[in-house]
Design a protein that fits this description.
This protein is an alpha/beta fold. It folds into 2 domains: 243 residues, TIM Barrel (Alpha-Beta Barrel), CATH 3.20.20.20; 96 residues, Sulfite Reductase Hemoprotein, domain 1. Helix content is 43%, strand content 20%. It contains 13 helices and 15 strands. An 8-stranded parallel beta barrel has the order 3-4-5-6-7-8-9-10, surrounded by 7 helices. Strands 11-12-13-14-15 form a 5-stranded mixed beta sheet, with helices on both faces. Strands 1-2 form a two-stranded antiparallel sheet.
């Protein structure tokens, strides 16, 4: 059961309420370089990114948002730290949402200038609190950085903006400590109706980041908490989008796409199954089909597992079986397994388009 949050419009997208949980990522190009940023946003869009965030550390970056906005259709969020003038400029150049940490923007007057600009354009503000920049008083009050401190900080900053008469808000609380982040969301969700953007910050490189994000986001989302998510990875942001999609699908929060199941390989494997599974994963990512594909190393579990799938491959000695809905349709040399699977996928796609 999803928490009932308020609806918030971000460009052409709406989050909150019963709207689907949207996938965000963040560009790692220099935003000032509009061409490079546009190219990366397009790759992210193709991968399934639904909201994109760009760092705006300079006035030049704020100005580049104007060009970026013209060339991409996904909503663009401007990420601002320290300088309220950058936030105001980003809004003027068409940002669909801005992310600030009011704590580092400075005086209430400066926060008010940002709020006024957002109000004029009717764009939401994400109030983002991070464990690394929790206010000193709260660190002292709670004897360190704690979930309680993060929640108090976020709610205090939200109140500051609400008291300025603006409630078009999204909240995020991030910590690289996964269980602290989970605890903070459990405390925060019942205390606010604003939609929540959820992520584990500074999660790490591909393996560590994916595992931490899957555990953290899994525990949070499974409680019905969260309206948008980001998987933070040190690497190509396209990987963040792929991981976010898989997390949502694994939790049953999103349907569609080709699911690949593959065996871990063992002493019975007689084909290059690890290589084949990787190739299959790349191949299927280009198909808009809602099916399961099994890639199995041998005939012990292969045909059985493949029976549960729409399409399957079970390896033999330098050869393999191609299986459709549990039925063996061909025995092929190893080198022909991938092209044969592609032909099956093409046929299913054609069938889908024709229906
Ligand atoms: Fe081993 Fe076959 Fe199981 Fe793969 S499917 S792990 S090759 S027994």
């Amino acid at each position: 059961m999803r928490m009932n949050t308020k609806k918030v419009k971000i460009g052409s997208r709406v989050i909150g309420g019963n709207n689907p949980i949207l996938i965000q990522s963040m560009t790692n190009t220099k935003t000032e370089d509009a061409a490079a940023t546009i190219a990366q946003i397009r790759r992210l869009e193709d991968a399934g990114c639904e909201i994109v965030r760009c760092a705006v550390p300079t006035m030049e970056a704020a100005a580049a948002l104007g060009e970026i906005k013209k060339q991409v259709s996904v909503p663009v969020v401007a990420d601002i730290h320290f300088d309220y003038r950058l936030a105001v400029a980003a809004i003027e150049h068409g940002a669909d949402k801005i992310r600030i940490n009011p704590g580092n923007i400075g005086s209430p007057e400066r926060v008010r200038a940002v709020v006024d600009a957002a109000r004029e354009r009717k764009i939401p503000i994400r109030v983002g609190v991070n464990s690394g920049s929790l206010e000193k008083e709260l660190v002292q009050k709670y004897g360190g950085v704690t979930a309680e401190g993060l929640v108090e900080s976020a709610l205090g900053q939200v109140r500051l903006i609400e008291d300025m008469g603006y409630d078009n808000l999204v909240i995020s609380i991030k910590s690289s400590d996964v269980m602290m982040c989970v605890g903070a969301h459990e405390l925060l969700a019942p205390r606010t109706e604003h939609p929540l953007h959820v992520g584990i910050t500074e999660a790490g490189t591909l393996t560590a980041g994916n595992i931490k994000s899957a555990v953290g986001l899994g525990l949070i989302l499974h409680q019905g908490i969260g309206d948008t998510i980001r998987v933070s990875l040190t690497g190509d942001p396209v990987e963040e989008v792929k991981s976010a999609k898989l997390i949502l699908k694994t939790l049953g929060l999103r349907k569609g796409g080709v699911e690949v199941v593959s065996c871990p390989t063992c002493g019975r494997t007689q084909i290059d199954l690890i290589g084949l599974a990787g190739q299959v994963e790349t191949l299927v990512s280009g198909y808009d089909l809602d099916i399961k594909v099994a890639v199995m190393g041998c005939v012990v579990n292969g045909p059985g597992e493949a029976r549960e799938a729409d399409l399957g491959i079970a390896g033999g000695i330098g050869e393999g079986l191609l299986i459709r809905k549990g039925e063996i349709i061909k025995k092929l040399p190893e080198s022909e397994l991938l092209p044969a699977l592609k032909a099956e996928l093409d046929a299913l796609l054609k069938q889908k388009k024709g229906s």
